[in-house]
Amino acid sequence: MASPTSPTVGRAATNGSVDEDAVPGEDSSEVTKLFAERLQAWKHAVAYLEDYITATEKTNHAHGKEYERVLKTVKDPLKEGHHFDQSLGGIAGMFENIRSNTQGISNQHYETAKQLKGQVLPTFDRLHTEIKNKSKELAKGAGKQSKAVDKARALTQKHIEHLGTHTATFDSTGGRMTATDDPYVLQRGVLFRLNRQIQEENNNRQDLISVQNSFAQFEAHVIQTIQHGLAQFMQVVNTQCDQTKAMYGDMVGASQKIPLDFEWNGFVDRNNTILIDPNAPPRSVSNINFPNQDHRSTKPIIAGSLERKGKIMRGYDTNYYVVTPSKFLHEYKTDDNFAKDPVPEMSLYLPDCVVGAVSGQKFNVKGKDVSKGKLGNSFSMNHELAFKAHTADSATQWHQAIMQACGKLTGELPAGSTPTSPVADKMSPVSSINSRTTGTPAADARQPAALQTEGLSKTNSVTSPGTANTASAATPASATTPAPTSGVAGEPGKY
Predict the structure, then answer these.
(1) Domains in the chain and their CATH numbers?
(2) Which of 202, 159, 158 is nearest to 183 (CA)?
(3) In this structure, how many other beta carbons lie within 10 angstroms of the beta carbon of residue 287?
(4) Cα 267 to Cα 135, 210, 227, 462, distances in angstroms
(5) In sequence order, which residues have a C-beta less than 8 Å from that of residue 191 and are 6 or more positions away?
């Protein structure tokens, strides 16, 4: 038997394949990591601009000091200044103009540095903070959801491996195992956890689609903020000189030409194999295969709804019952695998049970509830369970399926099914068997048979379907006729 292996599947299977693995091999946090890395790239890009503005501000502040040094070269008064006319328009006035303009240039550099630090730099600083907050939001939102997906996948894989272990030992042990290790029960447990995993995956998928859509708007905001900050920067440095204005104008002009969606479209084209396709259908349990899903031990011999008589109210309750290849009769509330964990309400190991005859729609099974495992089985008591099918044919099918796996058979009829008077044109259970085994016509073997009564003693039980119960039918005809060698399934009192 093939052991379960870790599934490996590409993203293409998630988007278009009908047959999918239960636990995909891709990293659920791959998209989150990609977005985190992209935010890191934007943060570094904004940091570059911050560093650029800061360096320009420090340079202007340093230029202010340097122009103060330049101013000292034309300090007042001029040496031998008395040789020059001190009125305006002369040499002295020229130097006075030089000094005032040089002082103005120095002050202008100080003012430029002040404006860069107080007006332009905060714009990029706030943008940097927004990107950091976006990274935290991504880590706490989609990143946390990705961890929940990984946890759910690990739990599903664990139960799939558990199912593989017990399906592998099914043949080697002859199908004998505890109720909790029944591959049918384990398979339903896998489906329950697989459904929980898919819910986590689909929730994470929706979160990532929302993040993916919000990133386009966020990047447009980032580019708009960069454009606005650089425009402020241009206004500040534009007063320095025409040449500086032309150089910085060219730099800002290049930034103004960037379309708002240019970077985003390029990002999507480069990472189309990683990003989620919003048009792809969500995952469904019906499209998923997992190891040992179709193993013969997971397929019920018979399954459907039966009515069982209650112990106190004596009324009939309808439940969902299954006879599995492991020879268990499991009782469930419903056949729904997804509403809650499908753990059997009751489990009977049929080789340890005693099965009565079928009468119309009714039949009885006596045995222990082993759904609680070995410990519960040690303290549980035998219970006689009265079942009622929807139709007589359905009761016969259930009785035959149970009879094939049971340990003991009895001729007991269900309560309320015992005949009250003999019928002349019908044979007794024993004479009917005699007529089938010896070839004697029923009319010739007709003897006054003992009536089948309710509550036969346990000594009447027969250990195999091939031995007839003759203790309750001690008539002359039955005493001289050999016991039947085989039973007729589905007829009261004939085994």
Answers:
(1) 11-270 (1.20.1270.60), 300-409 (2.30.29.30)
(2) 159
(3) 12
(4) 18, 17, 20, 78
(5) 285, 337, 338, 342
| Helices 30-72 & 121-140 angle (0-180, nearest 10) | 160
* pLDDT band at residue 321 under the 50/70/90 scheme: very high
Residue 468, pLDDT > 50, answer no
List, in order, residues 6 or more apart from 203 with CB less than 8 Å away: 145
- Taking the model in full, what pTM does it have? 0.47
| 199 within 8 A of 188, measured Cβ to Cβ | no
DSSP state of 29: T
Q: What is the mean pLDDT of residues 225-230?
A: 93
**How do residues 37-47 score in pLDDT, each as one tens digit?**
889 999 999 99
Question: Which tokens go with 308?
Answer: 């069982």
- The angle that helices 183-237 and 30-72 make with each other, rounded to 10 degrees, is 20
Higher local confidence (pLDDT), 347 or 471? 347
**Can you read off the two tokens belonging to residue 181?**
């290790």
CA distances from 67 to 124, 163, 250 (A): 29, 83, 27
The torsion region of residue 378 among left (phi > 0), alpha (psi -120 to 50) and beta comes to alpha
* Residue 41: predicted pLDDT: 92
